[in-house]
């Protein structure tokens, strides 16, 4: 079980999306993602450039370019929570694509320390986390990297938060929900891509019709990270 993580940023904020919307949270953003979504708003996390490794405090203070990262382990991150003065009791592990990492040790250490833990993943890598971790699957279908959504990810999902801009994205979601592996108890959210009005109108109408939930990127509306 690997304990080495590459962290692009870590900060305390309010979770803006999905079922934990409004909950104070510590975000851990891991470096690296090969999925290739054209509208990705964290493209600086895609590559792991060895020349961009810096000390934790340099990365956390944002004094280096935004594709910089630091290396640490679960215990080190827990100590950083204390030294940074974080008060939140909920941790969101995101990316990049966090499921590229084996997160069993990190999620176990955090849960044992009394945190609730959530991972946000595209569903294209096997999800290795503590059983009590809340899994938010935001499926990225037919992206440039050519990755498939895995059965294991569909089965493990506590919520499926699907990005939508046009009708074909609803069709993609229907296809995923029809797969035998998909957790029938998963909450289903539609999330308009990039706050576009057309996408938002489609998401609202479809949520009402299907009795699904709407997820807005509320942090972007109120101008927080
Ligand atoms: S999976 Fe996430 S981090 Fe990776 S390209 Fe897509 S939106 Fe960006």
TrEMBL record:
Cofactor: S-adenosyl-L-methionine; Mg(2+); [4Fe-4S] cluster
Listed InterPro entries: 7-CO-7-deazaguanine_synth-like, Aldolase_TIM, rSAM, rSAM_QueE_proteobac, rSAM_sf
Signal peptide positions on this chain: none
SUPFAM superfamilies xref list: Radical SAM enzymes
EC number: 4.3.99.3
Residues that hold Mg(2+) according to the record: 42
Tree of life domain: Bacteria
Role of this protein: Catalyzes the complex heterocyclic radical-mediated conversion of 6-carboxy-5,6,7,8-tetrahydropterin (CPH4) to 7-carboxy-7-deazaguanine (CDG), a step common to the biosynthetic pathways of all 7-deazapurine-containing compounds.
Annotated family: Belongs to the radical SAM superfamily. 7-carboxy-7-deazaguanine synthase family.
HAMAP family for the chain: QueE
Name of this protein: 7-carboxy-7-deazaguanine synthase
Species assigned in the record: Bowmanella pacifica
Gene (UniProt): queE
């Amino acid at each position: 079980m690997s304990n080495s993580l590459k962290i692009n940023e870590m900060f305390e904020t309010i979770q803006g999306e999905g079922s934990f919307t409004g909950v104070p949270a510590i975000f851990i953003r891991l470096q690296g993602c090969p999925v290739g979504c054209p509208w990705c708003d964290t493209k600086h996390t895609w590559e792991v450039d060895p020349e961009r490794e810096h000390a934790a405090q340099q990365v956390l203070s944002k004094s280096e370019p935004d594709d910089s990262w630091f290396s640490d382990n679960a215990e080190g991150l827990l100590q950083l929570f204390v030294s940074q003065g974080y008060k939140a009791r909920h941790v969101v592990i995101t990316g990049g694509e966090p499921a590229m990492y084996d997160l069993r040790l990190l999620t176990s250490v955090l849960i044992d320390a009394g945190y609730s833990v959530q991972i946000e993943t595209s569903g294209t890598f096997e999800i290795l986390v503590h059983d009590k971790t809340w899994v938010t699957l935001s499926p990225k279908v037919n992206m440039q990297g050519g990755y498939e959504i895995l059965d294991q990810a569909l089965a493990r999902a506590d919520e499926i938060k699907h990005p939508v801009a046009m009708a074909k994205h609803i069709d993609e979601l229907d296809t995923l929900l029809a797969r035998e592996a998909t957790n029938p108890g998963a909450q289903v959210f539609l999330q308009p891509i990039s706050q576009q009005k057309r996408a938002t109108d489609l998401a609202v109408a479809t949520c009402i019709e299907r009795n699904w939930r709407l997820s807005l990127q509320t942090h972007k509306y109120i101008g927080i990270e």
